Predict the 3D structure of the following.
Amino acid sequence: MNPNDNKDGAPAAPSNFIRNQIDEDNRSGKWSGRVETRFPPEPNGYLHYGHAKSICLNFGLAESYGGACHLRFDDTNPEKEEQEYVDSIIEAVQWLGFDWREHLYFASDYFDIMYACAESLIKAGKAYVDSLSAEEMRALRGTLTEPGKDSPFRTRSIDENLDLFRRMRAGEFAEGTHVLRARIDMASPNINLRDPAIYRIRRATHHRTGDNWCIYPMYTFAHPIEDAIENITHSICTLEFEDQRPFYDWLLDALASAGHFPRPLPQQIEFARLNLTYVVLSKRKLIQLVDEGHVDGWDDPRLPTLVGARRRGFTAEGFRLFAERIGVTKSDSWIDMSTLEECMREHLNEAAERRVAVLDPLKLVITNYAEGASEQCHAPNHPLKPELGKRDMPFGRELWIEREDFMEEPVKGFHRLYPGNTVRLRYGYVVKCTGCEKDADGNVTAVLAEYMADSKSGTPGADNYKVKGNLHWVSAAHGYAAEIRLYDRLFAHPHPGQRREGDPEGYERSFLEDINPDSKRVIRAWLEPALRAAKPEERFQFERHGYFVADRRDSVDGAPVFNRTVTLKDSWAKGGK
Ligand code: ATP
Ligand code: MG
């Protein structure tokens, strides 16, 4: 099998430097064909669109090479982590359609092994307990251009180090009095190799291990060990860890030499993180948006979280398509939001059934249609999929149409309803506009028309009518009013908070200033009766208006409310709205 082919026969994924590395390893037999990746979130927040890129990459590689991808909670920092985040991350990865099978892990389950690894390093003379203050340590670290200097504690004996480290663990010392450091090279041009800290004292309760520990491993020490314990072959991370790779390799080599892990050792590979316009992906900013009430919670459909995306009506397939389309690279770049939206449209165009909704309703009265009478018209559920059949759409004397579909005095090129003009009511009859009714202020309150009894769609001769307008409508007697949320981009500017021309000298623009005031509009619309049966998360194309999803939180049986996912066309193209 070509390793670029998905198991289910989906089109080959385009090659990239990570696939090339895996192909090379498979050729050389380095891992005997095994491919094991991991997605290692820290459970300190909700996943966002950027994580989706990493999830699709890691799980996607495992899928296409017949390997496995682990879901590993990197929960080595006791202070910021919570079960709520663990649950939401599990749900999000499942929602994206990926399966870790038996490979669900928690880094905190490895605390004993990590501790043993640290003792091994001490015994090999590769780690020491430093008792300088944080400030003193910083002063000796050196700079990018100057080497660091050795700590006076660097030469402690192995026995003294072991004794101190064990007493750190036993809780004899206050926070900040001692740290365990790797003994590498204070003069290294790579600052990450200047005796990095690997264990520190923290009197904090961990969400899984409780108060079992009062020392916790540093992320840079814990992560390579987690990979080695799980037999990860390719440890894929974002570019900012490139300078950490020498330490990753140093540490695993030292531990393999001490007999902790077999060789070959996992290999770290870096790729460029997702930067997306019109959103913010930093955890700090997302928390601020939620805490200060700029959005309605973590699953607000405007927020770039995956719970938000789900309520927005974005699809897992859309995210996978997006991940494939943007690919993986070695250099940072910006992806335009329209690329993501277009991927959603592409999937929804294929997956979503069509329905009719009138978002800005105006009454149309068919004056020559009998009062109280009604009949069924038939609308195809999907223009590209006749096998999905048709649904009934009741027609009657009074209909709702879009206000913008009538002009008493038409402008040039307007082919919809105006006195004297003939249009087709989609899937129904051809009607001729005869006038309108107005209120005292001159606002149009109803449009009047007459229908042609022999023009019903699908009947012989119906096509003989040549009309230019083709309008959607909902029967007033049969349709129902429902709440619709018209969501749009959360920010009105591609780079929220970035300095702009015209900003006063020295002015610090906040990303909050760039919030789009029209990012959520709530309206009451008239929907065709078939939509009453929509189930939470069922998605539709509302003809002419875009893609909508029945809200999974606020819909009740028989009365769904809908969120707009995306408009049919990109309304932000060419310099914004
Ligand atoms: P933190 O600043 O808290 O570390 P984080 O966004 O890196 O935030 P993690 O939970 O550490 O959050 O991320 C899990 C994985 O997702 C990491 O492997 C990280 O590289 C990847 N990831 C995070 N943000 C992006 C992004 N914008 N694009 C691609 N991958 C990302
Ligand atoms: Mg991180």
User: Anything to note?
Assistant: The chain has twelve helices and 25 strands.
